[in-house]
Amino acid sequence: MPLRTDYRRRTKEASRRVTVGFAIAAMVTAWSGLIGPAGRSLAAERWTSLDGSRTVEADFIGLWGNNVVLELPGSRRVSVSVDDLIADSRIQARRLDEEQRRKRAELRQQILAEAKEAAAPAPTPLPAPPTPPPYQRLSSTGGLLAQLEWMDQQNKNGHGLIAAFDLLPLNYQNDLERLTRMSVAKLDMPGMRQTLTSVHSIGDLIITRQRWVFSHPRLQGIDADSRDRLKSLLLSIGGLLRDGIDPDQLRLEELSTKSLRTWLLELDGRLAPHIASMYEQMEMLGIEPLSYEVKDEKDGKATVEISYGDVKQSMNFITVDGIWMPADSDVEKWAEAMKTWEDTLAGTADGSLLGGGLAEMVPLMLDPILQPALAAQSAREFHSAMDGWFAMTAPLVTQMQRFGVGNRRGMNSYGDGYDDYDMEMEMDMQMEMEMEMEMNMPTDGF
């Protein structure tokens, strides 16, 4: 009875750890198949006494010291000294014991691997958003409404950036490419890379530590629906920063020689899945899409009433080289904006744009928090490093709670945080107790 009481107490303590509890449950189920009747073969083994006077058919339960534990028909178990068996039965007992030990070791390694994966900061491989529909250029203008609806669809599919570029008249595209190359020559590339690296680290942390992020106690206070929405949103933002702001993939220096459209297409391929995912989440939250009503379309001019729910706004459009553009982007105003941009660049020293204080400020603000979190070796260390950031999300958590349904969940402090040593100790304890309960019986003989 004390053993059973201690077993219940320890099992209750172990269940407080989410991942360890899962591992133990899996182990108990599989282990019972190795040492209990559920794991017996269709034909029981034959066992013969040393003097050959008696032979029985019984299932091998295990070898305990110098005794072999057998289960006879009727589920009665006996413990027999190996010395009281003939040579063939002794060899059989040793062979079955070795096989049982091997299976037990394999099971242990499997459970350890599964528990280690469950405790990892993120799943392996990292989950990725679905691939959105491919980008499709506007085949023909077909009128202003068709152009607006095409642009909305490309935005929804995550291709808004390249779509906006392709909607520009050819002269406008050439102006952008020329001034982009001039801007790249003026950039403080080392400073810009340092800034991008710090911002990229935010996305990298969200994606590669996502289990630890969403197991933080401050997020456990949100109801399940709201937490799932917040998780989806943060993963989309994290993926956007991780794949879109990575200096090694962004390669701003290539803009001095590469076609701007080619560069945008490469960027679009990395951003589109995450942007499309964000649009899908907006729909799930009930955020209404824009709707359009074109009025007075004639002679290359039109007025569009744009509706968003109950909010309506009018916007004027004109055609430039056969493409509908906002009225404030006519040829004269565009040329004026490009001239201002070019004059600004002319007065900027090479290698100084977006450098100096700005390049130093962003890493100075982000790195002291990000680096300890990225260096954390456990969920507990990570939660401690990020607690200040999560405290700042309290208003967002409150806002998400309003969207959610259901009751607030209780705080589940550090449910995923544990180390491999603690896990192995729990498993060893459980295995030993199982063996004791199976083997601790008197030697009965046949």
Overview of this structure, please?
The protein is α+β, with helices and mostly antiparallel strands. The chain has two domains: 2-119 and 419-439, SH3 type barrels (Roll); 144-298 and 328-403, no CATH class. It contains 16 helices and eight strands. A four-stranded antiparallel sheet has the order 1-2-3-4. The chain has a four-stranded antiparallel sheet with strand order 5-6-7-8, with helices on one face. The longest helix is centred in the first third of the chain and has 33 residues, at 87-119. 21% of the residues are buried.
* Main sheet makeup: 4 strands, antiparallel
Share of helical residues: 55-70%
Strand/helix succession: HHEEEEHHHHHHHHHEEEEHHHHH
State the strand order across the main sheet. Answer: 1-2-3-4
Uncertain residue ranges: 1-42, 403-429, 431-442
What's the alpha carbon Rg, rounded to whole Å?
34 Å
Count of strand segments: 8
Mean pLDDT score, rounded? 81
Classification by helices and strands: alpha+beta
- Overall 3D form: elongated
The number of domains is 2
Distance between the termini: 27 Å
Beta-strand portion reads 5-15%
Number of helices: 16
Keywords:
elongated, alpha+beta, 57% helix, SH3 type barrels, 446 residues, 2 domains, 13% strand, 16 helices
Explain briefly what this protein structure is.
This protein has 16 helices and eight strands. By secondary structure, it is of the alpha+beta class.
SSE blueprint:
Elements: H1 2-14, H2 18-35, E1 45-48, E2 55-64, E3 67-72, E4 76-81, H3 87-119, H4 144-156, H5 160-166, H6 170-186, H7 189-208, H8 210-214, H9 224-244, H10 247-250, H11 260-284, E5 291-298, E6 301-308, E7 311-320, E8 323-326, H12 331-346, H13 357-375, H14 379-392, H15 394-403, H16 420-439
Antiparallel strand pairs: 1-2, 2-3, 3-4, 5-6, 6-7, 7-8
